[in-house]
Request: fold
Amino acid sequence: MDETQKKSYEISYLLNPNEGSDLMSSIIKDMGLEVISEGGITEMRLAYPVKKETRANFGYLHFSAEPEAANKLRDSLQLNANVLRFLIVTPPFVKTQSRREEGSYRVRPVEEARPEISNDALEEKLEEIKI
Reply:
């Protein structure tokens, strides 16, 4: 595989409550994909039954692969009975340098503070306007 064609992906998944977090990482590694980082797994109660399950193990991990290999992973996960739901996305682009460091931001002038006026002074002004 050419390193320039690989993309980073994030997969979040719901597994059968009897399965552990190693199931998803082993599926990805068996397909020859590289796991970059892995989040913890949490058991949770589902808002509605998914494939007749009311509880599931939720987890996520990051991996790198070619787009074609990611599509093959998607196809194999759809056929796996222990994977209740999954979502594969490309993580958003992370800025390495802020705009202030680049110097491409606009400075707005600060408005002068208006002097505070008491209620009595405001009432006098209103009376002048009414006349």
